[in-house]
Amino acid sequence: MRAAWQQLRLSLATYLRFASLLREHRASMALVFALVVAAVALELVKPWPLQWIVDEALAGDPAGGLARGEVILRGALLAGALVLLDVALDYWAAIRTAEVGQSVVRSLRGELQAHLLRLSPRFHARHKTGDLLVRVMGDVPLVRTVLVDSSLAMASRVLLVLGTVAAMAWVDWRTTLVVLAVVPLVLVALRFFSRRLTIQSRKQREKEGELADTVHEALSATPTLQSLGSEEQVGRLFQRQNRRSARAELKSARLSARMGGSMELCFGFAAAAALWMGSTRVAEGALSTGDLLVFVAYVRSLLKPMRATSKHSERWSKGLACAERLADILDEPLAVQSGAERLAPARQPVELRFEGVRFAYEGKVDALRGFDASFRRGQLSGLFGRSGSGKSTVAALAARLFDPDEGVVQLDGVDLRRHELSALRASVSLALQESVLFGLSLRENLQLGKPDASDEELLGALRAAGAAEFVARLPAGLDTELGSSGTGLSGGERRRLCLARALLRPAPVLVVDEPFAGLDAVAVEVVMATLRERGREGIVVVIAHDLDRLERFDQIIFLEEGVVRDSGRHHELQARCGAYRESIRALAS
How far apart are CA 5 and CA 459, in angstroms? Predict the structure, then answer.
């Protein structure tokens, strides 16, 4: 009993959590509810033309001097008018409900997407992309069903049931008691199956998320899978997860069918008992034949909302399970937020300093251990080390994608955590080795770095990144539409576009990872000159793997297993640091 009560409280809290989305639609919801009430009233009136025809024209003599044919005609016209009016009200209510529902979907998806984009890379490392896609695209419409469609439908069903019971009691309260005897059984069945449906629906959505993630990963890596000849192996993995998802959905379908069958069985017996009791009352002269027909019509009318309640209870359970999944995301705290002081970074900072920084990714060894380094304006700094030494982690900490577990990262002596986050990130331009492009035009991809950039600025950034020539060869130039994730471009072309986007940002701190990869000698010199020029006016940090250009850096921070082994000019490190010489030989071989 305690578990059931806790589940009810959780379901109510989850519903109220998202019900705030309806506040701006209060007028529309009030109108729809008024239409629902009117439709319920019409539903209750519908059987009475039949009672009038039967008692006045078929089983007895018409009152008021009307002929039998007139009674039948007027009764039929009235029944038709009621149906026509009911259809018009249902249509109007459906349109307004759809408008509110779509607005709720847009608002909730927007809130969810915005929160996902603010969550740290640590969160995204814990959650599979496919599952997050299912939550945004699949779970949100089901939550809308709970908030709008099912809520209004169940409210109308409740009103219809109450009105029908009241009308039945007015016709004959004794026969009504016979029908109501099944209500406790129906409530027990609803509670029993609804709780299990909510649990099973959550499991089903999780399986669908895993399936979606497998599809996403396979489609993203199609060339790799084809080159490895692993299509069948991945296909078998997909089929296995597909079967698990299908089994979870089948379990939900079985529970839903059992709930519907239980409701039908209860009300089937109730209808049979009502027919027996009502017929007995007619034989006794307590009811007319028309009254019995109205009562039976009400019993059948009572069965319809109860069947619909069974279906909406299933949707409600699935929607609540999806709402819980969305709440898990929306309740995830932002690991990186603006400092309480919300300081603005200096327009031309002089020094980016790391002091005693330790950082570890979840479930992994330390990426940085006691990292100490200083990067100053006016010098071109390089980060050098073997793969896994912590270079990319330094770049991520500089842009405050993470906060260090220990130690401090400072800009001009001020802890980055004290700054206003958006202003800080506007001061740092980051180009990582992973080239991320979107299925937009080339112009739109570049303008992510500077939304108001002119064509002259875009072309200047492309020239600075050594990308102007290949962009000029594209059929539509800057307006060329890129495929998903930049499909259709080579790896080197994607890296150059990402570098151009980073160079376009008017940020005083520039951190780039391997800017020379995939460039010819002429383009390398262009990029090196650009970095040197930016280094005169700002802080420039280059994660370097190009051994031929190490001597071009004013300082090199040599990292090994997350620790600074030494720092200085290239020739100085070669002279005094054996580990540095060994790393160069290893990378050169």
Answer: 64
Nearest residue to 550 via CA among 381, 398, 395, 391: 381
**pTM more than 0.70:** yes
351-588 CATH, one of 3.40.50.880, 3.60.20.30, 3.40.50.300, 3.30.2000.10 = 3.40.50.300
CA 136 to chain centre: 2
Q: How far is CA 514 from CA 384, 527, 589, in A?
A: 10, 11, 19
- Give the model confidence (pLDDT) of 104-161 as tens digits: 888 888 888 888 888 888 888 788 877 888 888 888 888 888 788 777 777 777 777 7
The amino acid sitting at 139 is D
H or E element in which residue 408 lies: strand 406-411
Helices (H), 399-454: 421-426, 442-446
- The answer to whether 392 and 433 are in contact (CB under 8 A) is yes
Residues 210-231 have a mean pLDDT of 65
Helix ranges (H only) for 61-182 are 68-118, 121-126, 129-134, 140-144, 151-171, 173-180
User: Parallel, antiparallel, or unpaired for β 366-376 and 351-360?
Assistant: antiparallel
Chain center to CA of 291:
54
Three-state DSSP state, 59 = coil
In the numeric block, which tokens belong to residue 96? 């307004």
How many CA atoms within 13 Å lie on the side-chain side of 84?
6
Task: Indicate the average pLDDT of the chain.
Answer: 79
> How many angstroms separate the Cα of 295 from the Cα of each of 164, 308, 316, 471?
9, 20, 31, 78
At residue 88, the pLDDT reads 85
Poorest-confidence range of 8-12, 88-92, 418-422, 498-502?
A: 8-12
Per-residue pLDDT, 312: 63
SS3 30: helix
DSSP collapsed to 3 states, 414-428: EEHHHECHHHHHHCE
- Backbone torsions φ then ψ of 383, nearest 5 degrees: -105, 125
Give backbone dihedrals phi and psi of 165, rounded to 5 degrees, phi first: -60, -40
**pLDDT for the residue 1:** 43
Distance separating alpha carbons of residues 186 and 160, to the nearest angstrom: 16
- Pick from 66-80, 332-346, 431-445, 509-523: least confident: 66-80
Residue type (1 letter), 148: V
With b for 16 or more beta-carbon neighbours within 10 A and e for fewer, the 77-95 pattern comes to: ebbeebeeebeebeeebee
Rounded CA-CA distance 474/497 in Å is 13
Tokens at 42, concatenated: 């019409």
Q: Tell me how far CA of residue 325 lies from CA of 70, 210, 251, in angstroms.
A: 61, 14, 19
| Per-residue tokens: 6 | 């806790």
Identify whether the C-beta of residue 462 lies closer than 8 Å to the C-beta of residue 471. yes
* Euclidean distance between CA atoms 308 and 327, whole angstroms: 28
234-273 pLDDT per residue, tens: 677 778 877 887 787 788 777 777 777 777 777 777 777 7
User: Which residue, among 583, 527, 59, has the nearest Cα to 291 in the 3D structure?
Assistant: 59
Fold of 22-330: ABC transporter transmembrane region fold (1.20.1560)
Mean pLDDT of 201-230: 68
The domain locations on the chain are 22-330, 351-588
